Amino acid sequence: MKRYKVLFVYNPEAGNGLIRNNLDEIIDKFQRKKLQVVPFRTEKKEALNDVFAQMDPTEYKKVVVAGGDGTINTVVNGMIRNKVDLPLAIFPCGTANDFAYYFDLPMELKGMIKVATEENYTYADVGQVNSKYFINVAAMGFLVDVSQKTDPNIKSTLGVLSYYLRGLGELPNLKPIPVQISSEEYTSTDNIYFMLVMNGRSAGGFKKIAPRASINDGKLDVVIFKEMPIMELMPLLVSVMTGNHTENKNVVSFSTDRLIIDSDQHIGTDIDGEKGSELPLDIRVLHNRIRINTVNKNMEGSIW
After folding, report:
1. What is the full per-residue pLDDT of the chain (304 aa) written as tens digits?
2. Are 132 and 286 in contact (CB under 8 A)?
3. Residue ranges of domains in the chain
């Protein structure tokens, strides 16, 4: 029996209400493709997890998620924990949309619908931090503070610019963090300003944080910004925008499928823009764990 149901998970506030204001049109386009939309409005993470725990995956063709990286993260965590092995389509409606950026997904509604209603898929790795999963990035240090201290309303209004402005304001409070890092490729005790473990290539709107990263190579790309004089930090941040930072003497970068991070200090962590796990962190990669609806390069010229 063919499966026609599609679970449509959407954040009503994402994209300044783009999905909420066009939900009827979205349902109409899916129905024209003989796909029955089952909408779920995100409110609490626990409620979404219950949806996946109670659903019968054999009745569904795919899951569609409309929102930013944090919403996608919640959906992927719910799917993996409840063994829901269905393709995932993405409507990028967040602040930075870093995960969607990797796949070059459309940012306008008609393009989003077109991709989601087709059958073109790419496998993608998923990162795991202790008992949580991430699609794009696990982080600690300065960038985490910037993200978690930025008002959500300002993020919605100013977008990626809000991260830059907040980051500049926090520079006088910048302090190094002592961490122990252990992996097959790199083991050291370092004082760092921040650290990113990347599955994708961009984070917080910085498009080339991990310029050589591949989403399905079975590896995570680690980028460590070590303690340095403040006068050397500003030129380094400029080079981050161009993707040339990995050659800097104050930056350590390597690829791995597993690493352990610990510290004697309490350090906040971040997973896809949301509050992360407590240290120590056991980080590993789940190779080709999910299927993502991607653009059919042979049909880019036509919407319908």
Report:
1. 567 899 999 988 888 889 999 999 999 999 999 999 999 998 777 889 999 999 999 999 999 999 999 999 999 999 999 999 999 999 999 888 999 999 999 999 999 999 999 999 999 999 999 999 999 999 998 756 555 454 555 444 434 444 444 555 556 667 889 999 999 999 999 999 989 999 999 987 788 899 999 999 999 999 999 999 888 887 887 888 888 898 899 999 999 999 999 999 988 899 998 889 999 999 999 999 999 999 987 644 433 3
2. no
3. 5-124+288-299, 133-286
Tell me, rounded to whole angstroms, the distance of Cα 225 from its chain centroid: 20
Q: Does domain 133-286 fall into CATH 3.40.50.720?
A: no
**The domain over range 5-124+288-299 is classified in CATH as 3.40.50.10330:** yes
Question: Residue 210 to residues 24, 126, 200: CA-CA distances in angstroms?
Answer: 38, 16, 7
Please give the structure tokens belonging to residue 58: 């054999």
pTM value is 0.88
Q: Assign 285 to helix, strand or coil.
A: strand
Nearest to 139 by CA among 2, 289, 21, 269: 269
Distance from C-alpha of 122 to C-alpha of 186, rounded to nearest angstrom: 30
Three-state secondary structure readout of 267-278: CCEEECCEECCC
Residues 3/146, Cβ–Cβ less than 8 Å: no
